[in-house]
Amino acid sequence: MRTPASIAAQLETTFGHIRSTRMADVPILNEAIGVEAVGFREIDEGLLGVLVTPWFMNLMLLPVEAAAWEGQRAGEKTLHTLPAGCYEFIAGYEDGVGDYRMCSLFSPMFEFADHSAAVETAAAVMDGIMTRADAPTDTDDTDTDPEAASAPRRMSRRELFRQLARGGEA
What we know:
This protein has helices spanning 4-20, 115-129, 146-150, 157-165, and strands spanning 36-43, 46-52, 57-62, 77-82, 85-94, 98-106. It is α+β, with helices and mostly antiparallel strands. It has a single domain (4-165), classed as [NiFe]-hydrogenase assembly chaperone, HybE (Yope Regulator, Chain: A, 2-Layer Sandwich), CATH 3.30.1460.40. The protein has a six-stranded antiparallel beta sheet with strand order 1-2-3-6-5-4, with helices on both faces. α2 (115-129) packs across α4 (157-165). Residues 140-155 have low confidence and may be disordered.
């Protein structure tokens, strides 16, 4: 059985190796950014977190039992409902990690000045993703507007992540 810590270590090792081999001379790398797994936690569908690399930032979903998703086809799309809403993931596989599903957040990574900014954004994304879409925020007027209290907040995935990247609240 895999844990959030073991998945994070596997992802960092595997994608660190990819960075220094297959991606070594690819011009889309932001050299100011390293490889780091951020915020991994167990959810109903598996282990969820954000993987930051010099060429992408993706939500990553992996099964708790490594063999659970054997037979999925690379590139196959699946929908997963998370607290903030429903997101489309694409199936992938890497030796050292096994089967996973990814949801692209940023690619390439040139809008990040450094590794710390990318990791802060990844942490904010995880906070946003794990917050119910209809949960009130400190600035909501749901106390005075009953219709607003019952209406779910609607925001596209890209809009959510752009707002989080700018430091705003989702």
